[in-house]
Write a structure and sequence with these properties.
The chain has 263 residues and is mainly alpha-helical. The protein is 70% helix and 0% strand.
Amino acid sequence: MPMDIPILWPIYAAVFIVGSGIGSFLNVVIYRVPRGESIVKPGSHCPHCNHAIKPYENIPILSYIFLRGRCSGCQKPISPRYPAVEALMGGLAMLMLWKYGLTREFFIYSALSAVLIALSVIDIQTMRLPNPIVLTGAILALGLNLILRFDFLWQMLAGVLVGLLLMAFMGVVGKLLFRKEALGMGDVKLAAMIGLFVGLWHTLGMFVLGIAVGALVGIATTVISGKDWSRRIPFGPFLALGTILSLLWGKPLWQWYIHLAMR
């Protein structure tokens, strides 16, 4: 049940702080995993000069502001992606708290949000969805659901199956339209992982909303840029966005669509 923000703002603030701290760790994952580097060693350092980042330089969001977006060692710019990921994770954790309160769903869907952020940024940057992160997400989904909501087992199985079938269908349709492979196996694995977390109905929401947003963005960017309609775009972020939209506003969006369709 949604939590009243004015009354419980200290809890929201605490959740944002913890979430942004998790976002700081996600930045390490985003940078190192595609490069095949360990996320444990060495410690945080500047990728340009290897300056070891001190604890007070590693405070989510605030350190970027105090350092004016530059490394204290070599003065080269720090990517704004770092505070953006931290703020996004903190913001999504707050939204999950607002939607679900301090329930098991809050913890499960906040964990999913973290995995989706890492995969989305990596997909945008590299057009890849690394197997280690997808597998970690699947293990996390199994563990959290089995511990916190064992009664969700059939929903998990249905979510995986529907996610796989929908993405396979989309791959066939895309191949017929563009005469080439339109969907990578990474997207299929991602949909299955999301299904483990959210179950049947939100997996359907992920697919419908992800397709809708992806189509709108794809059409807009193609028209604006004048590039080939068959060019490949990263689809992982749209699956992630469709999932978040379904978790937060799936029912109102569906009711709005039905109302619009029946007018």
